[in-house]
């Protein structure tokens, strides 16, 4: 059965290049390329049973119990009936198989959901709807607006001019700004002509499948002409087509070969640290078991040689035994069977049930339910719950995980006055809530109904004709690269490169300055109901060095103006000296905005002299056509014309965080968890969010920025950062490097006294992740309180997680919401998916999912901590009770001639773990909690013991072993001494083997029941019912099985006739039971009492405080937004692509417009004359503009 669709066969060797022909499936099938189907499931109906059993028997414990079953079928060594092993083994295999089957069924459903999506495919000259899974390499498919890109496509044509298509790459790199792709002129001319597309037989040769998202190399050959292909002509799977009615594409890579899937990483079988510890302990127990059996086998050999040999008339040897040595050999295997309960198979059944129960708690938690999207929390994996209580590192995506992907115009400063806050009648600032009155924009027919603003004074200023306010919003309506589209109902829709631009233009629109449309030569704005057409003379485009953009326009009043917006640090250097006072006031406002975590932008303008501008234009033409130092000359001209500007004010945009993000990060940090943000966004954007959510703050001594372009530069920057934080670690590094390489080398925890942050760019991270630098990166980053990696690829996210896993003994968690986070989610110990705006790929690959980042604190601090505590208590108790149970056999061997006789009745041995002690320990493991959820969230420090693995480790296991040895000694010798020579009141003897076995097993059950009562701190009716019910069931079964009736019906199976009523009616027996229980439990109670009194941990202190206060924590108060006083202003994070302004000026991204009848109600006829008056000047500049654009 093929793994990926019907068109694929197993390829014998890796591809070196890819060749394909359009519309020629027969040719393409010869290369055996993958189809577009994906398959993540493991089984089908035929393979489920054999494959699942094969996987289960790869576990040491299951193979061990199968081996025991085989031993029990050999009469010479079997001392127990076969059913004592078969029943538990079958139960374990069945429960695990059902769980695995359900998990795989869910994978089948998710695969079917993706593969069944519909897309239009060009087949035999017609467009037909086909499923994604049916798409093959070389097919031509049609996509429509807002559809996901099906596979990696070569863009052939689109509805936009010049074959342009707009895509959103949020699932690939987390960015929500639109990106432009352009088809070749050859294919773009085909448009949506189906016949031409069907006849197209171009041949593509390209690079083989790889994970490089930003690179593509290939050629297209058509009619003996060769055309170059690059990344700007490729639509990648996972992108979304935006603002483009339709496009056609040729499938280059499909299914697992797409760049998205190549970045998804391999699915790793995840096991908890407790699972790994249990495997080690099981091996220890096997060694201990072998040692005990060897001791008893040697003792048997000596006993048979010195005593048994002479008593063969009374105790004959079996026919197969010819010597004492062989008898010892058989005894070894007999005791392997008897002592096998040191590693009980019911342990694994119980662990699965506990994990399943704790998973249901997550699914049922209403406090993690998001009603807005009707999304509950979901535990998609049931085997990792306790790992949630041990997280040390969290790796988080930014876009859609910490933020909502929503930009809102929040505040502004105009001419030294700030707007956006709401004040009461006393002049005091009040917090904005859902009940706060919103500004009514109904007077503006073109206003965006989704826009919300609360400060009425700004609307009043605009309505009253405040000159500064009008100029402020006029700038926002003119200085941008936004495209507008008018729907049939007259509604304006903006197509912006970045959400920041969209928010600013929308704000201007609502305050009465509506950007309506643009051509390469003009911008149409509706100002307070009056339509004005501005002649667009130049766009001085944004780049990373300038950090600003400007437009030069001529108004209908023939006013020549330069409008500029950009980062405050840049604009302030370009202002006229007369703006000094206004600049100081605006600076104060910027500090206030930055304190709220807002993204700020400064606006300025300059009136230009007509003669000067014409002279500047001629020099600009010369610079743009220069053969040498063109960029430098253009930059100088930009600087020249942008000098001596007049300050208008500043805007403050909120990149909306999800609710509760700063508080969640604060609590997780207080719990000792380190949070790293890994994002594909720009550095400035990532830093802004770091400050907004309080990962970065001004109290930090320094925030290091690593942005070297070579390996040597990155190494030097990392070492310099570490030298500032802790110089002595540089010397330690030399010592570590000189040491011989080990298979796994764990880095020490370096602590620093001050607080630091580090920001590292994607290109620098690529060098830092090299083998010789990864240790340097990790040591430096781990010294910092906050780490932000920006411009990282999906694969780099996984590599960062892998480095931490490799060198740190810590549990990692990755959380994200997009396809670009899948590889990181798979690589981490725990993967959490947020069902957000970027699709469901992250959720489908995750172990746990929910709708909001803030639920992470409850998942870890409540469910994770409880699950860890419950599992640790369960394991400690389980090992204790089974060591206690089993070692009684060991002591009994010294009094039974090492004959491999059991102490207890066979039925008690069978039912001990399955019936008598299973429910009480499950009750504790499902309901135990040291403190309730409110206290867990109020005191995050309670989480730290799990990170340090204090509750169950090798030391804790050894305590269980010694406790079990002590209890087994008491449980054997005290009943043995009590029963010996015991007679009833009527003088009849009680001291027989069966009476001793019954007393010993009754003592054992009461001791382990008392022990679980001591271990439990949270009592429920269920716990009480399970403990007392199990004891009642024991006595009921015991008196029933040892009755006359059962003996008469099943004589061979129930030989202990009358033992219960003969022994358990004696007061001396109950006295021995009482003393045994006291002697076993008293040391534990005394030890814990002295530990609480002399060395209490944080949980003990909190419980004492709770017991003294006798109350729950106070209800959580609504917390105001966390503010920071900042000297660093949050510079505007442009998301533009350089050169987009030139694209607009060229008109290549615009359709030829006809006069829209629907908009005649908006256009003011009084402006027709003004537009005509400006037409002559526009035509005079048209030639110059085209030269400038082409030259630049």
From TrEMBL:
Catalysed conversion reaction: ATP + H2O + phospholipidSide 1 = ADP + phosphate + phospholipidSide 2
Residues spanning the membrane: 80-98, 280-303, 323-349, 874-895, 907-927, 956-976, 996-1014, 1026-1049, 1069-1090
Superkingdom: Eukaryota
List of catalytic residues: 397
Enzyme Commission code: 7.6.2.1
Domain P-type ATPase C-terminal: 843-1097
Binding of Mg(2+), residues: 397, 399, 817, 821
Family: Belongs to the cation transport ATPase (P-type) (TC 3.A.3) family. Type IV subfamily.
Annotated NCBIfam families: ATPase-Plipid, ATPase_P-type
Name of the featured protein: Phospholipid-transporting ATPase
